[in-house]
Write a structure and sequence with these properties.
This is DMT family transporter. With 305 residues, this protein is mostly helical. It has 13 helices and no strands.
């Protein structure tokens, strides 16, 4: 831990845990909103539009980095903003139409393994034996978690799982590629820029492909959209960034392991979802694998989707 004061350390840990739980609540709110027949794109629009003013304000009141950024850096910022928050969120929202919120979090949680694999392919970073074993353990856990659900839901489940995996893949691609950009802009400004860009991409998607109105939904849809924006996007994005800054990404990985667990608990309370013992066992394997990878080597800078 970076700080010596135990009291401060526990406060930082509490902040990190709160951030993880708030991020995890997003899937539950999405599933609750789908009960009112809202489309995935419209729901994503509500999340982004309600989030946008806060990220703009943070950007305006955050000091610029001393490092100079050229056109190349801003161009890649646009690319990674579209990949990391627009595409990842879009795939996630589509996938949640077909699978349980608790299963969604298990699949999304594998993104550090994808970061390791992408870093090996594109950045030529070696994979250690511990990382390789952890990756195999993680994916074995995913297969175990899938087994019962695949037998029950069949093709619908596979379709949803594929979209959630694409969400994890695009988010991991964003983390891998944006690693060199974050120091140039700073974590806070980079996150704000990326979210503003993704909001623009969502609006563009809506104008081109979506032919439904944003008005006329049940009031709960708008409240859930606001909840996703504040409680599961804006607030946790900065809580998690602060926690990682204070205790490091590897230490935060241990707290991140609470993500699937908190989603399972929240989904059980608010959605009535239940996982089988086999699925719970698979979840535990995934959590152990991800923590082993993250403790072996820091593989990501930020968390969430």
């Amino acid at each position: 831990m970076i700080k010596n004061k135990k009291g401060f350390t526990w406060i930082v840990i509490a902040i990190g845990i709160l951030g993880v739980i708030l991020f995890s609540a997003k899937a539950v709110m999405v599933k609750l909103a789908y009960q009112y027949n809202v489309t995935a794109v419209n729901l994503l629009m509500f999340r982004m539009l309600f989030s946008l003013p806060f990220y703009v304000l943070v950007l305006l009141f955050t000091k610029k980095s001393e490092q100079k950024q050229g056109k190349k850096e801003y161009l890649w910022l646009v690319v990674f903003g579209i990949i990391g928050y627009y595409l990842a969120s879009y795939f996630d929202f589509i996938g949640l139409q077909y699978i349980k919120a608790s299963i969604e979090r298990i699949i999304l949680f594998i993104y550090p393994t994808i970061v390791v694999l992408l870093s090996r392919i594109f950045l030529k970073r070696p994979i250690t034996k511990v990382q390789l074993m952890a990756i195999l353990l993680t994916y074995f856990g995913v297969v175990v978690s899938f087994w019962d659900e695949l037998g029950i839901e069949g093709s619908q489940f596979l379709l949803g799982a594929t979209f959630i995996f694409l969400s994890a893949l695009t988010y991991a691609s964003y983390l891998t590629g944006s690693d060199w950009l974050i120091p140039k802009f700073g974590v806070t400004r980079f996150t704000s820029y990326a979210m503003i860009i993704s909001c623009g991409a969502v609006v563009l998607h809506y104008l081109i492909f979506e032919h439904t109105t944003l008005l006329g939904y049940n009031a709960n849809v708008y409240w859930l959209g606001l909840g996703m924006a504040l409680l599961s996007t804006v607030i946790p994005s900065y809580l998690v960034s602060y926690c990682i800054k204070e205790i490091g990404a590897s230490n935060f990985a241990i707290l991140g392991g609470l993500g699937p667990i908190s989603t399972i608990i929240l989904a059980s309370i608010f959605l009535g979802e239940r996982l089988t013992m086999l699925q719970l066992g698979g979840t535990l394997l995934v959590i152990v694998g991800i923590i082993a990878i993250s403790l072996n080597k820091s593989t990501y800078k930020k968390s969430g989707s």
